[in-house]
Amino acid sequence: MTSPTSTPRSQDSDSFLGAVDLTGLDGLFSAEEKQTALKVRGLVDELIRPNIARWYEEAVFPTEIIPELGKLGVLGMHLDGYGCAGRSAVEYGLAAQELEAGDSGLRTFVSVQGSLAMSAIHKHGSEEQKNQWLPAMAAGEAIGCFGLTEPTAGSDPASMLTTARQEPGGDWVLNGSKRWIGLASLADVAIIWAQTEDHGNGRGVRGFVVPTDTPGFRAEVINAKLSMRASVQCEIHLEDVRLPESAMLPADSAVGLKGPFQCLNEARYGIIWGVMGAARDSFNTVLDYTLGRTQFGHRLAGFQLTQAKLADMAVAINKGYLLAHQIGRTKDGVLPGTVTPAMISTGKLDNCRVAIEISREAREMLGGNGITLEHSPLRHANNLESVRTYEGTDEVHQLTIGRTLTGIGAFTPTA
């Protein structure tokens, strides 16, 4: 039997993506883009991989990494100005997949901070709001969260019960609850979406910039989780939270649900890339494991069934990267056309499906050892159950695609 080399086979490739790159993916990216990915990979290798098993087991989110992420420039990295890096959509995607190769909870932090909270302020906020919050958030000196989902309104945000009432003096008073809100207990600022009284002025749902030290704001950590354990999700309670008139996101683009949906599509875009990192890490783990483990006198990697599974996994990962690349280049304006909701839903739906199946398959190929925290695939699979659910379930994305294909909206049941 040939002894494994000192360099794992999964990394023994000219491609920065490793042995999984069967289709020349490396050539799709510039040297600068690959350098961005490798810088993020270096942080993951140094700070995340040695500790993630313990953090996951103990349900700890490592707040000490936040300043390091700020120094790396990945917080709001796709936004321009106000201390943000202003990088391309593809570079952000490459960063996201490196982060999620470490753990979905790490990529989720960057997504909630940058694609949700910071994007809401950047897209819809006043200059005062942008200058107050974005530079500190980009540096990791302030943390944000994004409050849309409610205990009784998950996939149907139009039925939210949280209200914002404007009083004669101009102040807004918020009441209600939000659930599954990432980072809320750590956050310095929350973007809260609420129903406003409609006086014929088209307000409807509006967003508010809420400092979390405002009286009446309370965040409770949801502890009993089987997924995303190295991450923080909370329930927010708003009891007569009084805000100045200037707390509302003022832009016309923030009127109604189009405001939060624009931010959700930014987060969904990051997921399209991110889950490929989890899939690639699961593949790398099982490739190296099967090359190094002997059963029945042969390396596991030499069995036909093992190679068939590895081949299917690698092909699926290549297709996932190609899909993410197509959407990213379109988003950057390099390819013709504009990114549509159906395009985002296609990427989020299929890449999540692919990633969760690959991580499950990899766990199975590890045998009994696969249920331990020594190996990443089952941790990735558990995390991906959450990633597949948040920012739109499979069904929401299927109906978004179906609406585009048929011209018929089927989100509400027919009689």
Automatic annotation (TrEMBL):
GO terms for molecular function: fatty-acyl-CoA binding; flavin adenine dinucleotide binding; glutaryl-CoA dehydrogenase activity. Its EC number is 1.3.8.6. It catalyses: glutaryl-CoA + oxidized [electron-transfer flavoprotein] + 2 H(+) = (2E)-butenoyl-CoA + reduced [electron-transfer flavoprotein] + CO2. Keywords: FAD, Flavoprotein, Oxidoreductase, Transit peptide. It comes from the Bacteria. One of its GO terms (biological process) is fatty-acyl-CoA biosynthetic process. Its cofactor is FAD. Pathway: Amino-acid metabolism; lysine degradation; Amino-acid metabolism; tryptophan metabolism. This is glutaryl-CoA dehydrogenase (ETF).
